[in-house]
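Why does this matter for the project? Reviewers at the last site visit asked to see concrete outputs rather than summary tables. In response, this paragraph embeds two records directly. Each consists of the residue sequence and, immediately after it, the corresponding structure tokens. Nothing has been edited or filtered.
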Amino acid sequence: MFWMVALPAVDGQQYVYRVHAPDDAPAADLFWAAFHCHDEGPHPRASDWFDSAVIWSSRQTQQI
């Protein structure tokens, strides 16, 4: 299963990350996984306010 985590950034954009985690993963763990992934990339700084993130699950299997 994977989760989608949307983080608002200082440039006004919202960056969405896919986080692979179990069904019972704590929301804080999902947030920090996405935040650290964003921090390592070339994008403008994301908000580190947990309450500003939007987190939803996706049970769909995705073929690439």
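We now turn to the second protein, recorded in exactly the same manner.
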Amino acid sequence: MLYELFSSGPDEGLGRLMHAARQAHYTLPFLVLSVIEREGVAMGPAATGELARARRRSAHYRDVLGRLAADAEFTVLKGPSLASAYPSGVFRPQGDIDLLVPDEEQLWRIVGDLSDPAPAAVWVTVLGQERHLLVTLVWPPEEPLLDPEYRVELSTAALLGNAEVPIRVHPPEDPWLSNLVCLAEERLQRAFHPRDALDLYMLTGQGVPALADLVRTVVDFRLAPEVAELVRYTAAFLPVDGLTGMLPALDGKADAERERRRAESVPPTSATTAESLGSGAPLHGIRLGRVPSSVAMSRARIHRYGDEALLLTPVGAYLLVGEALVSPERYEAAHTELAGLLVSADADATRS
């Protein structure tokens, strides 16, 4: 099965298989190593150590969740649920944790609970006209030269979409369907890779919902094209007969969804921050520094000045931008605006 996924053959050896896995996705070598170990193949200290480090990474994420208060409200999306579909001994590595929180109050509460030890960075994004928040906390990994950072993402919406697909706040109630739409949603950001195919294949081993329910859910979540593509991508390597049967019904729905996206698409233009706030386009925060304790807040608030905006949050102040690059002048102007804002806040606190 793994050889087919990575376009490799048994006669090429396990080393070639590992090389192909590394090229496909950074987590896949650990999965392949776990299968090699499960088959009783002897592994040297380097391979054994690599697999052990990946397992410690997953254990670290379990410990992170275990530190949260018992009454904290959140839902873990994808990772652990998908891992439970794999056979015993086959390790599905975890790159990050995705948490859905019911509201902003819970979001900042959990961010605070997770901030000991302090993260190396906290990234904040504002999305949609409802001002949903995506907060990413980042810590150095055990082996910084080899592994990506530890990362926990918290959001007030489960599926964030893109310019063509709207935000969907709640995932499907059925765990199987929730895993499917979360897998398909990834296609809005990147191409599918072999771990996606393995995930879908393993899900089919847990029983497939009624095809009518499946198609209806996929259509409701605006992901018919992505699910059809994922099923075909997987079927090229692995048997997913329980899902290929829905493709005739799904293809027409996928065509309709593509047409909806074309009809509602807006040509990309250069928008100011103020315009993006009005339209609900994503805005990313460039960190400016901490907000003093004298300006205590439990919720984020937006401070507008001209066409620009600052996002003031319990974890710091950010310049909101829609571009990847920001001029030094714009960055310095944001610092100046923030400094003036804090002086005014201190003056108000002194008078009161």
